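step 3/5: co-fold with heme C
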Amino acid sequence: MKLNMLKILGLMGVGAMGLGLATAPAMADTAAMVKEKCAACHGMNGQSKNGKVPNIAGFSVAALTDMLNEYKEDERIGDKFKPEGGTETNMNAIVKDMSEADIKAYAAYFASQKFVANKGKADVAMVEKGAKLHERKCEKCHSDGGTNPEDDASLLAGQHREYLTRAFEKLSNGDQPMPRKMKKKFKKLSDDDKKALIEYFVAGGGAK
Ligand code: HEC
Ligand code: HEC
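step 4/5: write tokens
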């Protein structure tokens, strides 16, 4: 019985491969999916060259899965973006028809890419102010200065200024949901505090 099942599965596998169909995507297939669906904006390695697009390399599988599901359920609305030579779209349209297995495959792929925090040019005084604010208000959940994937949140260190500015704006005006405990801290930030935190992350946050 067991042998027969294996034989059947084996035959199905061969058949599926022959037709160019894969049932459960393996890493190699996922790379092809990423090339087609994500790379134009996020790069193959998840380190975006475009200021409007976040880096997603090395985030945890759980964080990536949650975010993709938030877009799928329209709990979070992505900005429209047109990559060079590509078509304009947003994250919601991209994940709309994705299966749970696809979402897991993309999440696993980008989680396995190396996290690199860019160290962008930033205002030194603001970076210092931002570091102190971060320590008091954000470090608990965005630990090691926004570099620790075990938090299961976005890695904020080294993101582009343009992206962070927009993300802070969406959080401030309620266009993007955030955890209740984060909201408590976030809503007390002044505009200057927000700028300082952004400069801190642009400079690389807690990255060594
Ligand atoms: C057309 C450009 C484009 C493509 C293609 C694209 N993205 Fe995005 N992605 C963005 C932009 C812009 C954001 C910024 C956030 C927003 O608008 O909500 C984003 C945000 C994200 C986020 C949230 C990161 C965070 O820290 O909040 C994840 C996760 C993500 N994308 C994964 C993917 C995956 C996986 C694919 C391929 C299946 C993909 N993206 C394809 C442009 C794109
Ligand atoms: C109680 C834990 C907690 C605290 C405190 C907290 N955050 Fe967050 N933060 C999260 C989680 C979890 C997410 C991911 C939410 C999601 O999946 O959409 C997040 C997301 C974010 C994002 C969104 C990035 C994106 O995906 O576009 C920014 C920016 C951010 N936090 C900044 C801050 C700042 C600045 C502070 C301090 C003032 C702070 N957070 C405090 C837990 C927290």
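step 5/5: annotate
Residues 66-67, 70, 137-138, 140-142, 153-154, 156, 167-168, 171, 178-179, 181-182, 185-186, 189, 197 surround heme C (ligand 2) (CB under 6 Å).
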